[in-house]
Amino acid sequence: MRRAAIVCKAIEGEVRLVLPPDMEIRSVEQGLHRTPLKLTESLQQEIDSLDVDEILMGYGQCGNGVVGLHSSRARLIVPDVDDCITLLLGSVKRYREEFLSEPGTYWLSQGWIEHSEDPYKEYLRCVDKYGEETALWVAGEMMKGYHRLVLIDSGTCPLAEVREYAQTFASFFKLEYSEMNGSDSFFRSLVSSEWNGHHFVVVEPGEVITREMFTPTLGLANG
C-alpha cells in the first residue's frame, strides 16, 4: 500500500521521529489555523496532488479546518481530536484531565514556538507599529483566561533550546510556568494504523469528512 502524510508544521518534528524514512510527508503552515477555509483549501490541494492509497493527516478537527476534505482515490486517516495539543500529550484522556484541572493553560512545544504566531510574538510585532499601549492591549486580549503556561517536551530537541523563550513568554504575561513530558503514542498509532486505544476518523475514497464524524470534547487548547 502506498502511503503519505500531510502534517501541520507545528508537529512535523514529532511525526518525522516515528515516520518510516521512505514515506512522503507534506507540511502545511501552522498560521492557516486562523483561517479555517484557507486551511481546508491548502489541505485539499495537498490531498489532490498525492497519488497514494492512504493519507495520514497530522491534524485534528482544527476549527473545522479538515471538514469537507475528501479524496477520490485515497483513504484519509484523521486523529479524532480537537487539535494537536492532544496529539502532543499522547491521549484524549490525558488532555481531558489537564483541561479539567487547569483549563486556563497555554501550551507550547518546539514546533509551536518555531511556527506559530503566539500572543508574545504578536506583542513584539505590534509594539513598533502601534506603540506599547496598543500592543499590550492586543496581547492581553489574546491571553484572557490563561493563567498557566506549559512547555511540552516532545523529544524533538533538548528542552534547554526552547526553555528561555517559554519562560520569557510566561514572565511577560505573569503566568505560572511548568514543563511536561509529551508522548509519541498517538503519532505511533497514526503511522502504524494500529489504533492502540486511540480514536481516528477513517474516511474511504469518495467520502467527505464531516463535523459529525468527530467526538465532542471539552474544548480547544491553543486553537
Largest beta-sheet details = 5 strands, mixed
**CA-atom Rg in angstroms:** 18 Å
Total DSSP E strands? 8
DSSP helix fraction:
25-40%
Number of helices: 9
The dominant shape is: globular
- Determine the structural class based on helices, strands and strand pairing: alpha/beta
Query: What's the SSE pattern?
Result: EHEHEEHHEHHHEHEHE
> In what order do the strands lie side by side in the largest sheet?
2-1-3-4-8
Stretches where pLDDT is under 50 for at least 5 consecutive residues are 219-223
Percent of sequence in beta strands:
15-25%
The total domain count is 2
**Span between termini:** 33 Å
Essential attributes:
globular; 9 helices; alpha/beta; single chain; disordered C terminus; 8 strands; 5-stranded mixed β-sheet; 3-stranded parallel β-sheet; 223 residues; 2 domains
Descriptive account of the structure:
- This protein is of the alpha/beta class and 223 residues long.
- The protein has two domains: 3-85 and 184-213; 87-181, no CATH class.
- It has helices spanning 12-18, 36-49, 84-89, 92-101, 110-115, 119-130, 132-142, 160-172, 185-192; strands at 3-8, 24-28, 54-58, 75-79, 105-108, 148-153, 176-181, 200-203.
- It has a five-stranded mixed β-sheet, sandwiched between helices. A three-stranded parallel β-sheet has the order 5-6-7.
- Helix 6 (119-130) runs antiparallel to helix 7.
- The protein is globular, with a radius of gyration of 18 Å.
- The model is unreliable at 219-223 (pLDDT under 50).
